[in-house]
Write a structure and sequence with these properties.
The structure is a single chain. The chain is an alpha+beta fold. Among the domains are: 221 residues, no CATH class; 163 residues, no CATH class. Helix content is 30%, strand content 22%. It contains 14 helices and 20 strands. It has a 7-stranded antiparallel sheet with strand order 2-1-5-4-3-6-7. It has a 5-stranded antiparallel sheet with strand order 14-15-20-17-18, covered by helices on one side. The termini are far apart. The N terminus is likely disordered.
Length: 557
């Protein structure tokens, strides 16, 4: 494109440049993964990378990114710009924080931001977010009673000043974490990927003759906002409510919402939600807001690449002090355990407004923190990500063992065993765990991990769906519930335990909820389920009212 083409912003040129920005973020993701030290980033992709314009507006996000961070990143950037106004920044500066109320809702994610200069002029920002393998304190779990027990809290600070790394800050972090090589390695991987992103952004501007990213950013965001508003306008105006109960620590917690659809905008009010508690399952507003924005995007414009424009038509309010708007010094380590319920809460409210767009409840993600010492003497502090079944939607079964609403990948068995010194004894699908329905919920799984490190290991369970199953929608039935067992005995799903050498913990995952009446499921689909081992013959009779025998199973084979 010739110089100045970006300013004309014709549809074809806009599409080309937009795709180019997304491809750049994907390359930054690759850089981050290749240079990281922990399996949390390298294998599980618990990360996000972002490009922003000079005013801090999010333009593009990596295709493989954690959904909540699309909502938290712009707020983090605004806090950073207040603490370090653009006119005070220099080339080579890098800003960082892990403050839960400024960043992503808990201490375990590091947010790294780098201003990009073209000559003496600041033209944009790159940003990356990754979950660190450790940040000190009690460890990544739910057992803390206040934020101070959960680890090292970094206010917005300059990690790098004009290209010079703050070694004192790195030494402070190194002295407070269990696996300093991994933690510092991952932090510096964030610095590296932002450096690469800045270079690529400048190359992009030179190639297309873009002097100012502002007009391009505005055009991209306006396009996304228009599509989102058109989809909201197609919904039926009205006020929709939902209230659910979920397991807390010792007693259930109520989550409530009032969703108002009016014209081309949506307002979500969480009045009626239960109060914060003195355990690490509280959710700061930033994370709740992000999950609400993600939920509406799923119902409106899921195929539109992520940028800040899609979030403009959505407004959220939550009473201060409720568990979805927890205030300092509330502990927030396991905030995802509660925060992930924002999506099914909103989907349930809008099932009447857009019944063919909402999803039945997911079995969700199950995190197990493992801390200890490898048989070769190395420190171990990492996370095992297990997944329940995906919730069904109209006309589509839920995928088996697929997390939702977040999307971390599972560490391959061979790598997990090598890194931790544990052994995966078993990893199998659980028949009949998917919620029955015209569309069936995805299956959960059972994963059994045995401590073969030769030394005691501490594990933190962070499980939900253990008392209230993933609900079905519009006649669909619930999926199976989750359960944790140590040596065969059921344990509290949000506790921490010492695994002695030879002890094994079994993670039985929840199934996704079904969608539509089970008796409306096509017989051919049910037969295929039984052939594949997803549904048992007994389950077909009990849940679907269908008798199946051997002749049925082998007919036509």
């Amino acid at each position: 494109m010739t110089k100045g083409a970006a300013q004309r912003l014709d549809p074809i040129g806009l599409g080309i440049m937009w795709d180019r920005l997304i491809s750049m973020t994907d390359e930054i993701v690759s850089t981050l993964v290749r240079t990281s030290f922990s399996t949390i980033v390298r294998e599980s992709y618990d990360l996000t990378v972002i490009l922003m314009d000079a005013d801090g507006h999010l333009i593009a996000q990596g295709s493989y990114s954690a959904p909540p961070f699309i909502g938290t990143a712009p707020l983090t950037m605004r806090h950073a710009m207040q603490a370090f106004p653009p006119e005070t920044l220099k080339p080579g500066d890098v800003i960082a924080t892990n403050d839960p109320w400024i960043g992503t809702g808990h201490l375990f994610d590091i947010n790294v931001m780098r201003p990009v200069f073209r000559g003496a002029r600041l033209v944009g920002y790159t940003m990356s977010i990754t979950h660190l393998p450790d940040i000190g304190g009690t460890g990544f779990g739910t057992t803390a009673s206040e934020i101070y027990q959960e680890g090292l809290r970094l206010p917005l600070c300059k990690l790098v000043r004009e290209g010079e790394v703050d070694q004192a800050l790195l030494d402070l972090i190194r002295a407070n974490v269990r696996v300093p090589e991994q933690v510092i390695g991952d932090i510096m991987a964030n610095v590296t990927c932002n450096e690469v992103g800045g270079r690529q952004l400048l190359e992009f501007m030179d190639e297309y003759g873009v002097e100012d990213l502002g007009p391009l950013s505005a055009a991209i965001r306006a396009q996304s906002e228009r599509i989102t508003r058109d989809k909201i306008r197609a919904m039926r105006d009205g006020v929709y409510r939902n209230r659910i109960e979920i397991e807390g620590i010792d007693e259930p917690i109520a989550l409530a919402c009032r969703v108002e659809v009016a014209g081309d905008g949506i307002h979500i009010d969480l009045e009626g939600t239960g109060a914060a508690v003195r355990r690490g399952i509280n959710v700061p507003y930033c994370y709740t807001n992000a999950m609400a924005l993600y939920s509406i995007k799923c119902l409106t414009a899921p195929s539109v690449p992520n940028n800040e424009g899609s979030t403009k038509p959505v407004r959220l309010s939550a009473p201060p002090g409720c568990i979805l708007n927890a205030q300092p010094p509330s502990p927030t380590g396991g905030r995802h355990i509660i925060g992930h319920f924002v999506s099914p809460l909103i989907f349930g409210a809008l099932a009447e407004a857009v019944p063919n767009e909402v999803q039945a409840d997911c079995g969700m993600m199950d995190l197990l923190t493992v801390q200890g010492t490898h048989r070769d003497g190395r420190g171990v502090a990492t996370i095992y990500f297990a997944a329940g079944g995906f919730g069904a939607v109209a006309g589509h079964d839920g995928a088996n063992t697929t997390p939702g609403p977040s999307n971390m990948a599972v560490v391959p068995v061979e790598i997990w065993e090598y890194v931790t010194g544990t052994t995966i004894e078993k990893k199998v699908l659980l028949p009949d765990s998917g919620g029955p329905g015209a569309s069936r919920g995805g299956l959960g799984q059972e994963v059994v991990i045995r401590n073969d490190s030769g030394q005691p290991m501490t594990v933190f369970s962070m499980a939900n769906r253990t008392e209230f199953p993933p609900l079905g929608l519009l006649g669909g039935r619930p999926g199976a519930m989750r359960e944790h067992r140590i040596n065969g005995a059921v344990v509290h799903p949000k506790g921490h335990y010492s695994l002695q050498p030879g002890d094994a913990i079994a993670l039985r995952q929840a199934g996704g909820g079904g969608f539509g009446e089970p008796r409306e499921r096509p017989r051919a689909s049910l037969l295929e389920d039984v052939r594949n081992g997803f549904v048992t013959i007994e389950g077909a009779r009990r849940d679907y009212g269908v008798e199946i025998d051997g002749d049925d199973l082998f007919a036509g084979t």
